[in-house]
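To the structural biology subgroup,

Please find below the input and predicted structure for DUF1963 domain-containing protein, which we are adding to the shared reference set this quarter. The sequence is reproduced verbatim from the submission form. If anyone notices a discrepancy with their own records, reply to this email rather than editing the shared folder directly, so we keep one authoritative version.
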Amino acid sequence: MEAYEAELERQLQQIVQEIEACGLEQYKDALLARRQPALKIHLELAEQLPVGSSKVGGMPDLPPDFSYPTLIEDYGDVPRGTPLTFLAQYRLQDLASFAFAREVLPSDGMLYFFGLGFQSGDVVLTDCGRVIYWRGDSARLQPYAVSEGVNTYQQAKIHFEPIWSWGFHLLDESLPAECDEITDRYTSEPLHQALGIPTPIQPSDLMEDEEQLKQHVLLLQLDYVPKIGLNFGDAGTAYFLIPKKDLRECNFAHVWCEDACC
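Predicted structure (tokenized):
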């Protein structure tokens, strides 16, 4: 058993105990049926980080020949060709220490996330989000100074923690209201995560369709981050999901990107 697996087992036993303490043991199987391992993303403000670190905000660390992404079509008053805003990057080696991540993600390289940012701090992803995978010599990476007028955010280091994601929003509505005592405990706070089951805050054709969800992998769920000035509407959330088939082929051209607000 890998070290993180012991932590997941501890978390599982904890929720089982809570279910039993609430007198809901007969609903335990239903509550836990959809669980899958995920990586909770913790953010720590950091003025300086080694080049190529997993992070949110700051300047992206890119190779010299990287083609910086721009808006493909006009978005309202924003013309196509406008440079997108850098949101986050993963050093994929940081995730490769978890077996469930190794099963679906490339084991090395960098994964970059972009959206259309505004000076208010808001970011739009729907029809504007982009994910780019790069694999090469990490010694070639260097901080990239974005064009003038492109919004940037304070830099925060990413730390990955193994957790369970529960998929409580997919539960059968026939379950008694008493089960809300359990589900609310695990869904009431903002959550940054990868590889788990997304937690939608607005109706979503994809995220509320269990069969469709099974065919996708959540690359990133990023809630609003006021401490770095990043927002998605009114206390909103950003989602990046990719079809499993495309991920197996390292094809990131058709990532499903959406932002939603409360």
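Summary notes: The first helix runs from residue 3 to 21. Residues 41 and 175 are 30 Å apart (CA to CA).

Regards,
Lab coordination
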